[in-house]
Specification:
By secondary structure, the chain is mostly helical. It is built from 33 helices and no strands. The chain has helices at residues 2-49, 72-76, 107-117, 119-142, 147-172, 183-204, 211-232, 234-251, 260-279, 282-299, 305-324, 339-347, 357-376, 381-401, 413-428, 432-438, 452-471, 478-499, 502-505, 507-532, 537-557, 560-581, 586-602, 606-610, 615-636, 642-672, 680-704, 709-731, 753-771, 776-802, 815-839, 842-866, 869-896. The N and C termini lie far apart (120 Å).
């Protein structure tokens, strides 16, 4: 039975050899037929071109045309799937009437066409490679030979295939025009796979050799593959690289994965990169790197700790090889365009120059390694620290390489972002590192100081210092200074948000970390100030970072009111530094600082805190912020900073409105001795606050515009919707005219809670409309302000005649009350006419006509039926005289216009 199986294996092995022999014979026969057809066609052409008188002369023997020898240019354009299309300068000129040629097919399409036309070569290579591998597997399953013999059989089979391929190449050739085209590559590639498989089996399956000997053997086969790739061409590289990566999975599929495999995969990747380095076949490098990462990832799926740590080291080595081997040195020389500008240009549909292939290969390797380290960093404590160490190593290497390879300098963003993500995921998911950190003092209050958060903070600070050192070099771009100013502080913020180290080590020790970061940033600012001279943009970046770190420390240790004042004082410091040293970027901190202080005054701790906190703390927070904004505005004035001045101006007005609203609310509440949260006047003050914030954003949006215009417009919409809903609630369900749910009106006539609820919002909208540009928004705001003013006047007159107890409309109207409404409408119409005459405004004159029309409608529809006696007569008399006077005034205004 075993002999029959061996005979069957030999028959199966002979099948591809026989197929190849038949194909070669058929190719030779086809060549001979083509030569005969050419000879026959030549004879026919000569016979057709000979005159009739000359046909009697015996024709001279026609020499057999020699096969046309391909020139070097033709050889460069042979039909292989990896041969790039000819350059425009090398192509033949197109005749004027010749239609334009179609674009050349892509590399992938050419590869598919080649594989379809030459599929038998591919199948033959695969068959031979599998034959060597399955020979070893068959010996294992049936125990036919001892382990040493099985390995020697695989190695001998591979050597025989390589020798056979070399004999064919030397004797018959390997060029596409020869009948033996691609056959040497097929045999040699299958032989390489068999050699790799034999060495892998010797170490992984049988333990015949140690890792060192296996490493040397793999390296020797790799060197042999480089040499054969140089001689035989790209097909050999495909077979060798793909087969070598597949060999461990085919030979040792039932053996648990070992970390030694990563060394094997690295050698194969180096083999592919080495072939590209010699022959400049870019696709070989891409294939090798992709398979190297993929094979490493598959090996790590066992989730064994040793395999995970090995995979993390493997991806770092992959990046080093993908960057250094194509450059043929320890210092890469990648020049040209960078990758991130290309990605941004593609998103914005902007034409950007493409980077070179070595740059794209290095970028893909860095991105893949960063993603792999991000994934493995969540698998335990040791993988977490290994991922952090590996990402730091990549960032350091990219920074060092950027001096000689400027095209790689933007890639540092990838490992740095991955580092932030690894730390954040560890904190948010409650990983083993953060759990151990948080539980340091749970069982032993005298335990040593936990260093995990401090170590991560030091790593961020070290990366900032490294980026600063790179920024100090000649020709360094602004981005390196920005990276130096951001990496350390941002990592500290990530640790604070996700790890909350202050809960473990205390607020003051953690705040000390932030202050030390600020000290480092100040030192860097001084260093760059001595170098940059009058160009102070980089100095401003470090000053901004120092101020942000100081604010971070204040957040940790100060109380609510003190923190608000401290943040406001940093805004003053930024404005003062800008005035003293002309640091334009300080406007950025001013804008962000005003937004941060406003957020604290409105939301966190916000109005809810201000309504109940001690009065002195409220005054400290709100009045202190107002004074700081005014001081910063005065400091900004000499420099003419438009953005900073406008934000400070609107911020000061907003804070003043907040302070007035809060103090008025507390005063009314203290006077009435009741909770005013759900009262008509309380909702009126709330509406003033939100509408004031809306106006501030609208003014900034109209005056500044820019990329943040839509953001400010969105904020204005949100604030306006909140203020509008609050105002509508105060006008309806909480209005004293509807019911007494929103508390009764308090205070004397006119100067009472109705003025706070309705007149104050109307006045705010009217003032805001004066600061907006002419347009529909301004007109609408004037209309809303006027409607609120009318509502307030009606409610005030109602309170004057009915008192607080009879305010609801279902209590009816008094006759003097109805007459007073008519007089009020006539007075309002006359006032509008006067303003129209004084300002020459057609809009005010039309508004006056509308008000007079309302008065006329009221008299004829309500007063005639509702009034009695002399009151009715007096109402009609006043209306008639008023209309006569206003008609004359309107005609006079029209004649002057």
């Amino acid at each position: 039975m075993e002999g029959a199986l061996i005979l069957l294996g030999l028959v199966m092995l002979a099948i591809p050899v026989a197929v190849i022999y038949l194909l070669v014979s058929h190719a030779r026969l086809r060549t001979r037929v083509a030569v005969l057809e050419t000879e026959l066609a030549t004879q026919v052409m000569v016979a057709d071109s000979t005159p009739d008188t000359a046909r009697t002369v015996p024709p001279k023997p026609v020499e057999r045309p020699k096969p046309e020898q391909p020139t070097k240019a033709a050889e460069a354009q042979t039909s292989t799937p990896w041969t790039p299309p000819a350059k425009p300068s090398e192509q033949a000129p197109i005749a004027p009437n010749t239609p334009p040629e179609l674009a050349p097919p892509s590399l992938a399409l050419r590869a598919v066409h080649w594989a379809v036309a030459n599929w038998f070569y591919v199948v033959s290579a695969v068959s031979l490679a599998l034959a060597g591998l399955f020979l070893v597997q068959y010996g294992v399953e049936n125990g036919l030979f001892p382990p040493g013999a099985r390995v020697l059989a695989a190695l001998g089979f591979g050597g025989a295939l390589i020798a056979g391929g070399e004999v064919i190449r030397r004797r018959f050739g390997d060029d596409p025009e020869h009948a033996t085209a691609y056959l040497p590559s097929v045999f040699s590639g299958a032989g390489l796979v068999s050699l790799f498989g034999g060495i892998a089996a010797a170490h992984l399956l049988y333990g015949l050799i140690g890792a060192e000997v296996a490493f040397v053997g793999m390296a020797a086969v790799g060197v042999l593959g480089v040499g054969l790739g140089w001689l035989h061409g790209p097909l050999l590289a495909v077979v060798g690289v793909v087969g070598a990566f597949a060999a461990p999975f085919l030979v040792a599929g039932t053996v648990p994965a070992q970390s030694w495999l990563y060394i094997y995969f690295a050698i194969i990747t180096a083999l592919g990169l080495g072939i590209d380095t010699i022959r400049r076949w870019a696709w070989v490098s891409g294939l090798s790197v992709a398979l190297g990462f993929g094979a490493g990832w598959l090996s790590a799926q066992s989730f064994d700790l040793e395999m995970i740590l090995g995979f993390q080291a493997h991806v770092v080595v992959m990046v080093l090889m993908a960057t250094l081997i194509p450059a043929r040195g320890l210092r890469p020389d990648h020049g040209g365009a960078m990758i991130i500008p290309l990605a941004l240009g593609q998103l914005g549909r902007v034409a950007v120059r493409w980077p070179g292939f070595p740059t794209l290969l290095a970028g893909a390797a860095v991105a893949t390694a960063s993603a792999a380290l991000l994934w493995t960093g969540t698998l335990g404590a040791e993988p977490f620290w290994m991922a952090v160490l590996s990402l730091v190593l990549l960032a350091v290497a990219l920074t060092a390489w950027s001096t000689t390879a400027p095209a790689l300098q933007d890639l540092i963003v990838l490992p740095v972002l991955a580092l932030f993500a690894v730390v954040a995921i560890e904190g948010n998911s409650g990983g083993p590192v953060v759990r151990a950190f948080a539980a340091t003092y749970d069982t032993n209050p005298e335990a040593d100081f936990p260093l995990a958060a401090t170590l991560l903070w030091a790593i961020g600070l070290g990366l900032s210092a490294m980026a600063a050192g790179r920024a100090l070099r000649d020709g360094a771009v602004m981005a390196w200074a920005l990276a130096a100013a951001l990496i350390g502080p941002v990592l500290a913020v990530v640790i604070e948000v996700t790890w909350t180290p202050a809960n473990t080590i205390g607020a003051y020790p953690w705040a000390l970390h932030a202050m030390l970061t600020a000290v480092v940033m100040v030192g860097l600012a001084l260093r760059f100030a001595r170098i940059d001279g009058m160009r102070r943009d980089r100095v401003a970046l470090f000053v901004l970072s120092a101020l942000a770190c100081m604010s971070f420390a204040f957040v940790l240790i100060l109380t609510l009111a003190a923190l608000t004042v401290a943040l406001a004082l940093t805004v003053v410091a930024a404005a003062a530094l800008d005035r003293r040293f002309d640091l334009r970027l300080m406007q950025l901190f001013v804008v962000v600082g005003v937004a941060a202080v406003s957020t604290r005054l409105v939301a966190d701790p916000g109005l809810a805190w201000a309504l109940d906190a001690p009065l002195w703390e409220v005054l400290l927070a709100y009045a202190g912020a107002l004074a700081a904004f005014c001081a910063a505005l005065w400091l900004q004035h000499p420099r003419g900073r438009v953005a900073g001045s406008l934000v400070l101006d609107t911020g000061a007005w907003s804070v003043a409105g907040l302070l007035m609203s809060v103090l008025l609310f507390r005063a009314i509440e203290a006077e009435l001795g009741e909770d005013g949260t759900f009262s008509h006047w309380g909702f009126g003050l709330f509406a003033v606050i939100w509408l004031g914030l809306m106006l501030a954003q609208l003014v900034r949006m109209q005056r500044l515009g820019g990329a943040l215009g839509w953001v400010r417009g969105g904020l204005a919409l949100v604030f306006g919707l909140i203020g509008g809903l609050v105002l509508v609630a105060g006008l309806t369900v909480l209005s004293p005219l509807v019911a007494d749910w929103g508390s009764r009106v308090s205070g004397p006539p006119v100067l009472n809670t109705l003025a706070v609820a309705y007149a104050l919002p109307a006045l705010l909208l009217a003032l805001g409309a004066t600061r907006l540009r002419a347009g529909l928004l301004r007109t609408g705001m004037w209309g809303v302000a006027g409607a609120l003013g009318v509502y307030w006047a009606f409610a005030a007159l109602r309170h004057l005649w009915q008192g607080a107890a009879q305010m609801p409309l279902d209590n009816g109207f008094l006759q003097p009350e109805l007459y007073s409404y008519t007089v009020a409408l006539l007075v309002a119409g006359a006032a509008l006419f006067y303003q129209a005459l004084a300002r020459g405004s057609v809009m005010l004159r039309r508004a006056g006509l509308v008000v007079i029309g309302l008065a006329v409608a009221k008299v004829f529809l309500i007063d005639i039926s509702g009034l009695e006696g002399l009151t009715r007569v007096l109402s009609l008399m006043v209306l008639g005289l008023s209309l006569a006077g206003l008609a004359w005034l309107n005609r006079w205004a029209q004649s002057r216009a």
